[in-house]
Amino acid sequence: MAKASGAAADQAAPAKKNRLKLIVIVAVALLLAIGLSAAGTWFFLGKNRPVQEETAVQPAAAPRLPALYEDLMPPFVVNFHADGRTRYMQVSLALMARNPEQLAMLKVHMPALRNQLVMLFSSQDFAELNTPLGLDMLKQKVTATVQALAMREVGAPVVEQVLFTNFVMQ
Question: From which residue to which does any coiled coil extend (predicted)?
Fold first, then answer.
């Protein structure tokens, strides 16, 4: 029996040595990974950036002009036939632009613009306009219509956004 326990002790010693080697290798690999990670982070965060990149002059952006608002008065009133009843919609709009000269040039074409908007409003479905999505879609259509007319007549989109200042349906 003494020989049996001596053989087991001989096998346990190499197993402990193999386990110790494995722990040392894993620890060295872990330290190496941490070191490489720190070095890579330090390198990519710009500690070694050339001086010319830091002193490069960025082109100055054109200053943004303040917003100008043009109310379209009187409000638009259109009627619908929905579910066998006559329905009405009243919409007050404001145009938001940034260039006063282009806005003044667009004002000359206000009758054509009002005509296109009346035609657009009267072609809408009453049920769709009762939803938030339908109202948002109408706003996008109105903006696109105004910008298309401005491109055709003025040569620039002029209007950045169309705002509904009053919207009533009954």
Answer: none
